[in-house]
Amino acid sequence: GSNGARRGVRIEVGELKAADGTVLKGRVKWERVGYVERQPDAISHPSAPAPGEHWLPDALLPAAPFDVCNGGTQAIWLTAAADADARPGVYRGDVRVLVPDKDVQVLPVELTVHAVTLPATFGMRTSVSMMEPFVRRFYPEDFRERTRQLQDLMLDHRLNADNISRWEVPDVEDWNVICPSSSVTTTAL
């Protein structure tokens, strides 16, 4: 690429295996860490980054090839989930960073699976909200799709996927995503 930029960088996550060769029952996915620009007039907080830091990590973007400018970096986020019947133990594997026309970089990964199974339903009440008016403001063309993506993200991380400041009753289709065991249906009168 121009000026040393790396174009079309790809990530491959290899199988995670125990010392005896057992492959992890579960999944490992990767996402790109996205950044948001902090505005100069942003409200300050005692734990906030230094005023000169304008780009802050925020969103997890879908796995896809990406470009890295000369001297730049791109963070990635790995999420692992072991199946309920996965054998406890230490699993090792690697993440391969593939850059066209460059040497492959191999990064070792280690994951410990504990003998604990999380319940199928959430045991802890959470108060996390996706604030639908903000989603609608930033994604007016595909608001419904983005709302579903946010619900899936929250459910993947075992958070109650709802809008705690909603002004309207949620759509029936959304409620079945938020609370799948409820099986809400509508009846025409």
Model description:
- The protein is α+β, with helices and mostly antiparallel strands and 189 residues long.
- It contains 3 helices and 7 strands; from the N terminus they run βββββββααα.
- The protein has helices at 132-138, 143-156, 172-178, and strands at residues 6-13, 26-37, 55-61, 66-68, 76-82, 89-98, 105-113.
- The strands form 2 sheets. It has a 4-stranded antiparallel beta sheet with strand order 4-1-6-7, with no helix packed on it. A 3-stranded antiparallel beta sheet has the order 3-2-5, with no helix packed on it.
- α1 (132-138) crosses α2.
- The longest helix has 14 residues, at 143-156.
- Residues 182-189 have low confidence and may be disordered.
Described by the principal axes of the CA atoms, the overall outline is globular
Low-confidence stretches: 182-189
Taking the sheet with the most strands, its summary is: 4 strands, antiparallel
N-to-C SSE string, H for helix and E for strand: EEEEEEEHHH
Give me the secondary-structure category.
alpha+beta
Instruction: Give the rounded overall mean pLDDT.
Output: 81
Q: What distance lies between the first and last C-alpha atoms, to the nearest angstrom? A: 63 Å
Q: Total helix count?
A: 3
Radius of gyration: 21 Å
Reading side by side through the largest sheet, how are the strands ordered? 4-1-6-7
Helix content: 10-25%
Number of strands: 7
Percent strand: 25-35%
